[in-house]
Amino acid sequence: MIPIRDINHTRRTPIVTWALIGANVLIFVGSLSLGSTGAEAMVMRFGVIPDVIVHGNWGVARASGGAIGSWVTPFTSMFLHGGLLHLGSNMLFLHVFGDNIEDVLGRGRFLLFYTLCGVGAVVGQILVDPDSMVPMIGASGAISGVLAGYLTLFPHARVVTLIPIFIFIHFMEVPAGIFIVLWFVLQLVQGYLSLGIIAEGGGGVAWFAHIGGFLAGLVCVRMMYRKPKGRRKRLFR
After folding, report:
1. How many domains, the chain?
2. CB 3.0 to 4.6 Å from 10: which of 41, 103, 127, 136, for a disulfide?
């Protein structure tokens, strides 16, 4: 299922959501100019490498094989993507679901919420695979938290969804609660199936980053949401 748009109007311009999308696109375009060697070096420096964070020498700079400087990677990794499909799918989900969360939380709190969800994603993946030397990149962990926030605040909103069935394409309005719960179940299944790959030291999609970001979103949105006076039934419905 691919979300196209939601039927859930906002009251304010989603400046932070658009800025995040713009920053991700600009950094991706910039990485293309570095060539394969330069892009790989950028991923190794600014992506999250669990083994470096957990077992690295925090008395030695990362450029010299240590861990000093790795503290920034949970934040910088959220703006790096491995390809156009990776970038496009993440930005589509952020575009569809991010504006309403920004509308409710406000711009400053939404940016903080997004960042905390991204950090929660890193924690989730590191807990499962602390010895991995494979760099973790992408905004999907933070966006998973955005989905959790949307599920909490707008479970009955409708999402126009593209559903491919064999060679046919169908568009259907699906309640956000159903769409997001199905999406999360898929992450759980894929995460479980990936445990064998993790045990063998392989790479791939960081499914537990999605799960960690989602769980962080469930917690953070309830801590950061402030119920408007006189609008008791607007949210958490």
Report:
1. 1
2. 103
What is the tens place of the pLDDT at every residue in 115-136? 999 999 999 999 999 999 999 9
Reported as a single tens digit per residue, the pLDDT across 61-114 is 877 778 888 889 999 999 999 899 999 999 999 999 999 999 999 999 999 999
How would you classify residue 137: left for phi > 0, otherwise alpha for psi between -120 and 50, otherwise beta? beta
CATH number of residue 114's parent domain: 1.20.1540.10
**How many C-beta atoms lie closer than 10 Å to residue 235's C-beta?**
16
Q: Structure pTM? A: 0.90
Distance CA 214, CA 85 (A): 21
Domain that holds residue 95: 2-224
Give yes or no for a contact between 1 and 173, defined as CB atoms under 8 angstroms apart: no
| 235 occurs within a structural domain | no
Number of alpha helices (DSSP H) and beta strands (DSSP E) in the chain: 9, 3
Q: Is residue 230 part of a domain?
A: no
Q: At what angle do helices 207-224 and 140-153 cross, to 10 degrees?
A: 40
Position 203 confidence tier, pLDDT thresholds 50, 70, 90: low
